[in-house]
C-alpha cells in the first residue's frame, strides 16, 4: 500500500511521554501569597483566618477561608495554630477553595506519641504560648500521672503550664495542689454554683493575650469551660460513665476559638486517654530543674537520676538545692517516672 492511499484516520501518532516542558527543581516563590492562621482541620480541609489588612490604597476585611494542601507541601502535616501561606481564591466566599503552599516557621510545637514505645510523634498544635491542663477533682477522679506527663510535654515544648482544676464544689483542691507546690505551677480553681461556673474571671486573666491549648481527659469539664469563655463556641458536653468513671469523647477535632474582645485564643482539643512521651529526651526534663541539674555532674555514667547511685541525693542533702530541695527532687523523679512508665493513665 502506498502512502498516497492513506488518510488522517490511518495515521497513529505516539505521544511524547516525556512532555515538552523540561523538569526543574525550582518552585514558585508565591510572592503574592497571603498569611492566615489555621483554626480548624477536618478531613483534608483547613479552615484559615486571614486577618484584616488596611493600607492607604486598599482595605481587605478579616475573612475565613477554606483551603487544601498544595502538592509542594508533601506529607508535612498542617495543624491548628499553624501560620500558612495561601494562594488561589482567598475571598472567603462559600464555594471558594484556596491552597496552602507554605507553612511559616513555628514558634512552638506541642507533641505527643500514642504511648512510650511508639516512635511516631503526633503534633497536637503549633504556635501556642501556654498549656492549660484541665483536670477534675472528682467525677472523674484526678490522675496525677497524666498531669505530670502533660507538664513534661509543656516544659519540652517551651510552653508555660497552667493547672485548671474543675469541680472544686465536690472536693477541696488543697490536697491535690500540695503535690505541685514544689514545681511552682500556676493554677486556677473553678467550681459550679447555682448553674454558673465560678473562677472564670481569674481564668480569663491567665488567658488574656495568649494562645492557650486546653488538654485533659474526657469528662473533666473542658468543653464546659470553653463554652463559658466563648459563648458562641457551642462545644458538645459529655457525661461520665458510671461504670468506668471515664468521660465520653465529645470533641473529635482540635479547634481554635478567639476569646471575646480579641484578648487571645483557646485551642480546644479532643479528650485524651494517654499522653506518650517517647519523643522526649530525659536530659531535657532535668534542664527545667536548674537547681538540681547542677548536681548531676557527679552522677555515674548513664545515670537515670532515679536510682541509688544518683548523686542528686547527696547534693540535696548538702543543702545545695535550697530549702525546697527534697520536694523538688521528689517532683523531678516523679516526672522522670512518668516519662519512662509505659502504661495508660
- Tell me what the CATH architecture of the largest domain is: 3-Layer(aba) Sandwich
Tally of discrete structural domains:
3
Number of strands: 17
Largest sheet: 6 strands, mixed
Helix content: 10-25%
Full CATH superfamily name of the largest domain:
P-loop containing nucleotide triphosphate hydrolases
Mean of the pLDDT scores? 84
> Distance between the terminal alpha carbons, to the nearest Å?
83 Å
Name of the top-level CATH class of the largest domain: Alpha Beta
Q: In DSSP terms, counting alpha (H) and pi (I) runs of 4 or more, how many helices?
A: 8
Structural class call reads alpha/beta
Task: Based on Cα principal axes, name the global outline.
Answer: globular
Stretches where pLDDT is under 50 for at least 5 consecutive residues are: 237-250
Radius of gyration: 26 Å
Strand composition percent: 15-25%
Order of helices and strands: EEEEEEEEEEHEHEEEHEHEEHHHH
Give structural notes.
- The protein has 345 residues and is an alpha/beta fold.
- The chain is 19% helix and 25% strand.
- It is built from 8 helices and 17 strands.
- Strands 12-11-10-15-17-16 form a 6-stranded mixed beta sheet.
Quickly describe the structure.
This protein has helices spanning 144-157, 174-178, 200-207, 222-229, 282-286, 290-293, 312-317, 325-340, and strands at 34-42, 45-50, 53-54, 59-60, 63-69, 83-88, 98-103, 109-112, 122-126, 130-136, 160-166, 186-189, 191-193, 196-198, 210-215, 255-258, 264-268. With 345 residues, it is α/β, with parallel strands linked by helices. A six-stranded mixed β-sheet has the order 12-11-10-15-17-16. The chain has a five-stranded mixed barrel with strand order 1-2-5-7-6.
